[in-house]
Amino acid sequence: FGSRVFVVRAPSDTSFGFAAMQCTNMAAAIFALSLLALGDLVSARSEVTPVQKVIQLMEGMLAKGKEEKHGEQVQFAAFKQFCDDTSVEKKRAIDQANEKIDMLKADIEKYTATAARLTKEIAEHDEDISVWTGDQKAATTVREIEKADYDALHQDYSESVD
Prior knowledge:
Layout: H1 17-46, H2 50-161
């Protein structure tokens, strides 16, 4: 603690006498001591010791750390909520996409079976068409031969009648 020294001087006039001087010196000393004690109390209150300063700094650091921790917890909670929401949304989208994939696979199988059936039917129809075309050509050939026979027979009969 800092100490203060006050100097009290007695009056230079010696007319007061020895008793007055002792009284004045005593009053001055008491006054000086009270001022000194008061100064020490004031300075004790206003001055901060190094230990107190370290404690104040540590308390400030503690408060700042708690504030930063709270801020990080709030930020983490927001990020966690975002991640949870996104995760649920993505899982739902994946489930919907898997259902659609299953439906499309079923459609593909159905259309593949239909295409195979229709291909078989087309092959049968192509075979029927080629048989019918052959039958038509054979019938046309037979008719042409029959017409030629008829024309020859008709001419022979026409010449016989004439």
